[in-house]
Design brief:
Helix content: 25-40%
Strand content: 5-15%
Order of helices and strands: HEHEH
Mean pLDDT: 87
Radius of gyration: 18 Å
Number of strands: 2
Largest sheet: 2 strands, parallel
Amino acid sequence: MSALSKVSFRVRLLLVRHAESELNVLPHILGGQHNHVPLTRKGVHQATLLGHRLKFDKIDFDHVYTSTAVRAKMTAKIALETAGLKEKTNVSHSETLLEQTQGEWEGKDRADVYTPE
């Protein structure tokens, strides 16, 4: 048996959706990849609560990955700062984590886009 076969690795993956963004409160509008949209006050509060929960549960990260959307980066930043993890956590932002674009439908009213036909 090799030395590597005796080594066990523990991987813990925590998936978190971004906090409430300004487009989340406009459900009639197709948001898609509106990546410049910030968090609402409620979203900032949600991200802060997430940080308190991370701290309470003593959760630490080797690395945090977010999309390049403002709402995702803000959620991570606020949560990590609140948890006291910002200075010691590597954070990467990647476009590959963005949701799919809805093309020319983005920013339009759902009723005008999602028709019976």
